[in-house]
Write a structure and sequence with these properties.
single chain, two-stranded antiparallel ribbon, 8 helices, globular
Length: 183
Amino acid sequence: MAQNSTEQKFTFLFTWFDRTGDGYLTRDDFQQIGEVFAAVAPDESNKSALREAFMLWWDVLGEAGAPDAQGRIGRRQFITAMRSHIAADAKTVERLVTPIIDALMRALDTDKSGMLTADEYVRMYEALGIDPATSSAAFQRLDRNGSGTITHDEFRTAIEEFYLSTDTEAPGNWLLGSPLPRS
C-alpha cells in the first residue's frame, strides 16, 4: 500500500509538472511550472525565488541521472529519481521545497498575517489551475488546528507529508488540491 501511495503521489506530480503534456519532463517544463508559480507572486524577489526553486529541482533530478540523452525524463524515471534522491531524504525535500514554501507564504499572505486564509489559499490554487471547490476542501484538511488559517508550520508539514509519508490518510496528500485516488 505504501509503495502504491508513493507511486500515486509522484505520478500526480509528474502529470502536473508535464506542462507540454508530451509524457516527458524537460528543463522547459520546470521553467514553465516555475513561471506558473511566479505568476502568483506580487513582487520580483518572490517570483525569482520560485523560478530558482523549480530549477533547483530540475538540477537535483539531473544529479539523480533521471534525464535521458535528449534531456527528457519519463514518468518511470521521475518516480525512481523521486524515490531514490528526493523522498528518500528529508533534508533533500527540505532543500527543494523550503524555498517554495517560503516564497509562496510571502506571496500569498496578502494581509501579511503570517498565515494563509481560506481565500488566500483558494486564490493561489485557482491561479495554478485547480478548481476552487477542490482547494477549499483541501484547505479544511490542511488547517490542522481548525483555526481558519494555515500557518507556515502547517503548510510545511503538509508538504513533508506529501513527499515523505506513506500514510494514505495524511492531510498532506491534499497539498496539490485533490486527494490521492484510493486503491
